Every structure is written in C-alpha cells, then in structure tokens.
Amino acid sequence: MRDEEEIREQYEFLKEQLDDENMNHQGVRQMFTYYKRALGWVLEEEYI
C-alpha cells in the first residue's frame, strides 16, 4: 500500500492539473474531480 506522503503528492498534482486553464474538457475535469474526491475520502478515513 502507498504511504501517506505519496498519496498526498498525487492529490496535490491532480488538484494543480484540474485548476490549469488548459484542462477545459468537461469529461476530463469530471474524471479528475471524482479521483480527487476519492483520494480525499481515503485520506480522511485514515484519521477517523
């Protein structure tokens, strides 16, 4: 299983990619939004 630092690094990378002006295709934005949300849930559950 991946360590927390690696997961956080991926999450931040995806967040930056989603906020990039070139990332304007709605389907791609939606996919990244779902992925970001899933990673957020994983990180949140570790602290519950």
Structure description:
With 48 residues, the chain is mostly helical. It has helices at 4-19, 26-45. The longest helix is centred in the C-terminal third of the chain and has 20 residues, at 26-45.
Record keyword descriptors for this entry.
single chain; 48 residues; mainly alpha; 2 helices
Tell me briefly what this model is.
This protein is mostly helical. The chain contains two helices and no strands. The protein has helices at about 5-20, 25-45.
Label the structural class: mainly alpha
How confident is the prediction overall: mean pLDDT?
Answer: 77
Say how many strands there are. Answer: 0
How is the quaternary structure best described? single chain
The amount of helix comes to: over 70%
Largest sheet: none
Low-confidence stretches: none
Strand percentage lies at: under 5%
Please write the string of helix (H) and strand (E) elements: HH
Shape: elongated
Alpha-carbon Rg, integer = 12 Å
- CA-to-CA gap between the ends? 18 Å
Total helices: the number is: 2
